[in-house]
Amino acid sequence: MDYLKSVVPSQLVSERGSNLVVINPGSANVRIGLAQQETPFTIPNCIAQYTNGANKAPKKNVQDQMLNSQVTTAQHMEREKAYDIIASLLKIPFLDEEIGNNCFPRKMGRVDGYNPQTNKKDTAFTWTNVYEKNNTSSGLDNMLKDEPLEPQEGNGTKELRLADFKYKEFICGEEALKISPNEPYCLRRPIRRGHFNVSQHYSMQQVFEDIQAIMEWILIEKLHIPLSERNMYSAILVVPDTFDNREIKEMLSIILRDLRFSSAVVHQEGLAAVFGNGLSTACVVNMGAQVTSVICIEDGVALPTTAMTLPFGGEDISRCLLWTQRHHQTWPPIRTDTLTKPIDLLMLNRLRESYCQIKEGELDAVVAVHSYEDGMPAGSHKTRLTALNVPPMGLFYPTLLVPDVYPPPPRSWFSDFEDMLEDTWRSDMSDGLFPGVNSGGLQMWESYPVFTSKPRKEEKIGLADAITNSILSTGRVDLQRKLFCSIQLIGGVALTSGLITTVEERVLHAIPSNEAIDTVEVLQSRTNPTIVSWKGGAILGILDFGRDAWIHREDWIQNGIHIRSGRKYKDSYFLQAQAMCYINL
After folding, report:
1. How far is 427 from 204, CA to CA, in rounded Å?
2. Who contacts 205 (Cβ-Cβ below 8 Å, separation ≥6)?
3. pTM metric for this prediction
4. Rounded to whole angstroms, how far apart are CA atoms 567 and 544?
5. pLDDT tens digits for 120-137?
6. In angstroms, rounded to a whole number, what is the distance separating the alpha carbons of residues 60 and 63?
7. Which residues contact 44 (CB under 8 A, 6 or more apart)?
8. Per DSSP, what are the bridge partners of residue 368?
9. How confident is the model over 330-380, as pLDDT tens digits?
């Protein structure tokens, strides 16, 4: 206790955070770093595997690209209707109104200088070098030591280079997203829409192996922690609020059994975000790349009945940006394909982050759009994008964000019961995960039985309604008033300019008139909203002196019981606020 009274906070972080690795996995990115770091490494959560015989048809650039569904006529009509509703709110022309009104110059809001990373937003991405030196090569080793291998027009030169180089077995992170579709690689994303990306195209075992490979690569290449030294480190796992109990258990198995950390502890992402901002009570709204989740925290305790999940995020806003520009004919005549060319989605995400904001009036910007044709250098197209304030409003009118890419698969295999043995859930799937289903689009899930035992809510409503319903479900007026004045926005989408004011206005408008609530406030984040959960996990780990709830590697592998007063943790669909651990029964 005397130590805590005298120690300087920076010294405490340095001393106790040097052997703690904080891991925060997400659908698009995994944030990982030592607890003593100011900021974590943010690495795209994907891996591209070299595929032999890739020239044989059909070639898949993305592992689960067959899962996408076509937008129906009804969805098109709903999207256009949502656009017109948003247009009336933002006081801009309706979707098809401005075509005949081009005789007068339009009043524009310029956003060219809006984003602080202005100098980067017009820079084109370059294709990833997929080659590495052959161990047996010697002729060109010295000459090409520091040169990236680029495709050459002369066949003789290319053949000479390829004789001394070979394809990399796998590529992780952003480099995996920038591989040319011509190359023999298949991109895999082990987590999608807030869950493990299991389908008939992507087996459970492959998902687990890919998660392990990505984290192993980060630990060695970024944190420089080899496997031989891993037993000197402990892991803090900050899990998404969308994760099911089985997913949490499998993540712990990967961290303790495969990555070989000496011990680990689990924290909930929403709870960690509250601690990351120095709060104890808040309604946490996590707006990620593919999923938006809402959960209320009271005095450091998560309230599981308030948890809600919305199946859209930043990437859906980016695709909506592309649809909007194509409808207005402001997008260049180039082949932009966010499904089979991940590099195009990278470009759209950067355009969204740089130019999209929420404000009244017409919002246009002159930007450089890049085209990425197979194996060719990026082409630059200067164009004027319009209605840049419409896509982010899809958060409140989700029919604007048609889920035309990667609809969430059924979660039935995640059902987890207290009397379930470790291997029974696997044996049920031994004859194939999805027997008797075709490989079509979204229709393939229709006949598949989905268990409804999981109480976590996944809603198809707007953000304001989700926040309102979540807070009102607490049932206590005093807590409701406190939560409505303590809304915390985290995640990459939270950086959208104008979002805070819009959330306050839309939530206040969504509260029923019979509720005694007249004030709504979104708290300013003290930490970067994209890493606040990771930061909170680091703080919780550093301040956890007792470590009563930490799981040791041997206990977990041997299916043991926590060695303290005969206590054990039963399976649950919810992680409570304390530093909980899960022991296999």
Report:
1. 12
2. none
3. 0.83
4. 19
5. 567 899 999 999 888 754
6. 6
7. 28, 29, 173, 174, 176, 177
8. 382
9. 999 999 988 888 999 999 999 999 999 999 999 999 999 999 987 788 899
